[in-house]
Sequence to fold (170 residues):
Amino acid sequence: YQQNKEPDLAEETLRVAVQTSPKDSQSRLDLAQILISAGKYDQAGPLLEQLAKDSPNSIPVQESLFRVQAAQKHNADALATAENIERVGPKQGLGYYLAGLIEEADDKPDEAAKDYELSLQRQPDAAEPLAALVQLDVRRKKVAAAMARVDAVIAQLPADSVARNLKADL
Fold:
């Protein structure tokens, strides 16, 4: 239904699936993601909060919950969710990247930069934290630092197209 651009039918079908099998985590997550894509954060939030209680170690659930909290500007909750993602997946950079987004939104650029850097330490080839860090450097009028950062990534990962595109943009 989604591929046919019929989100209402997709939502209805998933609601029936959840009613039929209320313990099916994947159906509940799919329904929440349909609700998010429709901008129905008030409906997706409680569903994701329950899912997070049922599956506290599920990074996809936590990430979806974060997206809802951030969209609703519940920054303290979103930061707590990002920190939970850090605990659940300490070798991944996702939690740090998400925390950086919230800290940047809260006008805490130094803390955001630290989190983006921690994210890159865990996943040096991740595009989003590198782009966020470079954009943050540019907004802070640290273009030379941004260029040095991009050049270091290119030296380490010569085939990194994101770093090359960022360098071209700079």
